[in-house]
Amino acid sequence: MIISIDSNTEKYKINGTEASILTIDGGVGTDAKSDDGRIFEKDVLERLSSILPKVISNLRDVGELNSFVQFNELLASGSFPFENIAYRLFCDVVQWYTLSNTSSMRYSELVKRFWRTGYKLFKGKFLRFMSGLKNTGNINEGMSERGKYEPMNSELNFAVPSWSVLDKMITPVSTETFRPGLIDTMINISHENDPDKIATFKLCVDGKKINSSTIGNLGDVNLWGHEDPPTLSSKMKQLDEDKNNIEQLRNLLQDIQSERIESILDCAQHIKPVFIEHCINTIQAIGHKIRDLRKAKVGKHMAYDKFLKTTEGDWRKSRYAFVISSLKTSLFEISSCIEDALSCIDKLGCITAEMRGLRNLYCEGKVLDLNRQDNFYCLQIQNDKSDVSDSSIVKQRSDAWHKIRNTAHVTGSTCNKALGLETFKKATNALQTGL
Q: For 20, how many CA atoms within 13 A lie in the half-sphere containing its CB?
């Protein structure tokens, strides 16, 4: 594309074609534009005519001259889509490198919507990868001052807004947390966008695994009682009962504390049975949670071992580094939660034993001294010559135990056969052998 300007006429030649766009003396051209518009276009043409030879030379050196010519032909024909997101992103890159300070970069709503969508789908790693390093490290290297960054010193892939800019955007839907089920907000949005009810909508069930979210309470599937037991309604009911029991126990402790007694054992006699009942219920509820946590821990550990086996060398440098790190964090959190829950059960059990007057029979902590435990009974090892009056205290698989077992016609291993729970032949053989 070649532009020439004839200063003695009102004509401009573009690729040899005359175009009476402006007049040098400020007269009205054939397009009847305003004076300001004509002056601006004249300046643009003068700027293009001065830089175009250098542009052509630079594009020829990198092998992009043909693309540049094709792009201008599309612009001239009016067939290029200016709303194309790639074109918008390219314009932002151009704007980035024309600024004196990249901190003054501003983005259109369309571009910000594109980056926000990518951020929500692929998280912060997407933004960091697409933006590149930008001006990271320029301050430490003395290349820039804080708040003043030279665009030519930046390593840029795309001009990407910061997280704070994207988080401030007004979303088309409500920012409240949605629970699994029918999303009424989306139905209302569809209705507002189609007031004449012309479009056709299909209601379907999303069968994907639901993310439990960062707060951890959105992963339950509610199929109105048709899901596998235990149903969500039953689990929520049990959770409410456990919370109510803990709340009652807390209120009871506050009432006891308000009496200003030195020890909890000195509380009123009518309070002790209620207190003991709440403690036992709380211990049972925490125990059920520990059981669920241990099941979850087994699943997490299996997944951790699976991903760890697929890596070679240092797993931190593998493609599964993020997954393995997340699983290790989950295992640590689950283990810490189990330890805290066991400690809570231990303390509640000790208090319950004290309220019942059985503190000497309860061992608090992880170390047990059998010599001081009154409710410990050791299974004595009997020799072959001694008479055993109570076979329940004989150690299993000892000589005395084998001697007693040989005198039995039916043992635990053969009781099913002797009772006829298997085939008739096996039952007959068992009885004949025993007799």
A: 10
- The CA distance from 158 to 52, in Å, is 26
- Adjacent-strand bridge partners of 13: 4, 18
- pLDDT, one tens digit per residue, over 236-287 is 899 999 999 999 999 988 888 888 777 777 888 888 899 999 999 999 999 9
If you average pLDDT over every residue of the chain, what do you get? 79
Nearest to residue 92, comparing CAs of 38, 144, 159, 161? 159
Angle between helices 271-309 and 232-258 (to 10 degrees): 130
The residue type found at 410 is: V
Give the per-residue pLDDT at 210.
55
Given a contact cutoff of 8 angstroms between Cβ atoms, the answer to whether 139 and 147 are in contact is no
DSSP string, 73-113: HHHHHT-S-TT-HHHHHHHHHHHHHH-S-GGG----HHHHH
**pLDDT value for 228:** 76
SS3 of residue 19 by DSSP: strand
Residue among 334, 337, 338, 315 at smallest CA distance from 325: 315
Which residue is listed with tokens 């005198």? 407
Q: 147-152: which pairs have CB atoms within 8 A and are 24 or more residues apart? A: 147/101, 147/103, 148/101, 148/103, 149/101, 149/102, 149/103, 150/100, 150/101, 150/102, 151/96, 151/97, 151/98, 151/99, 151/100, 151/102, 152/97
Contacts 24+ apart (CB under 8 A), 148-156: 148/101, 148/103, 149/101, 149/102, 149/103, 150/100, 150/101, 150/102, 151/96, 151/97, 151/98, 151/99, 151/100, 151/102, 152/97, 154/96, 154/102, 156/93, 156/96, 156/97, 156/131, 156/132
DSSP per-residue string spanning 172-223: SS--SPPPSS--HHHHHHHHHH-TT--S--------SPPP-TTTS-S-----
**Per-residue pLDDT tens digits for 313-369:** 888 888 899 999 999 999 999 999 999 999 999 999 999 998 888 888 888 888 888
CA angle at residue 266 from 359 to 350, to 5 degrees? 25
Place of tokens 């966008």: 193
pTM of the model: 0.45
Give the separation between CA 357 and CA 314, rounded to whole angstroms.
56
Find out whether 397 and 403 touch, Cβ atoms under 8 Å: no
Indicate if the pLDDT at residue 395 is higher than 60: yes
- Taking the domains of the chain in order of start, what are their residue ranges? 1-80, 89-173, 235-372, 391-434
